[in-house]
Amino acid sequence: MQSKKVLLQKNATQRLPPASLTKIMTALIALENASPQQVVSIDSRAVVKRPPRLKLRPGEEFLLHDLLAGMLVTSANDACQAVALHIGGDYEAFVEMMNTRAQSLNLTGTHFANPCGFDAPGHYSTAVDLATLTEEAMGTPTFAMMVRTLERDIASLDSQRHVHLSSTNQLLLDPDVTGVKTGFTSKAGRCLIASMYKNGHHILLVGLNVKNRWKQAEQLLLYGQALLGREASNRIDQ
Fold this sequence. Notes:
Beta-lactamase, two-stranded antiparallel ribbon
């Protein structure tokens, strides 16, 4: 990944709905603008019934770190909404922060309309842009740790609420996979960004609207590792 060499691509600049891959930008904005140890009081506007969710209740208090885990590990929409409101004050201001950050990363094929990836007019990205965004986010240790987490427990500050988080990313069962995020909506289809580090090679895979994302991701990651391995072997032979 460090060399930014593209091994394989198809329709990489096509603008498509990114579903919950959007939460990568939301997490990046949060980590760049607040301490993970900040206390977040759950705003009533964040309490949504759209799954996946943590079933947050107005007035509950959680560490920002734990809400970020909720939105990145189990893709909880209410945790995502709570984070956006905590950082931006309202959704419109936070979305403006997202689009400003996208411009700073030169994500020319990306525009956000909400923090969590709900299907909406003007909410789109590209595989190329999402790769750039993910590389930026993976440079933040807290983010990188969360997106490789299979399971963890979080609790409200008063310990009245305990929530067990299980990752939506089944590729993490492979110890060489280091993240990162899944997504799904009816319009976006099944989406996935996966990162693998093996034999000294780091590969990042972005798939949007992939019908069989797990099987295809496994095949493409193995293909990439094999290709890089052959290139390394050829350099040694020379």
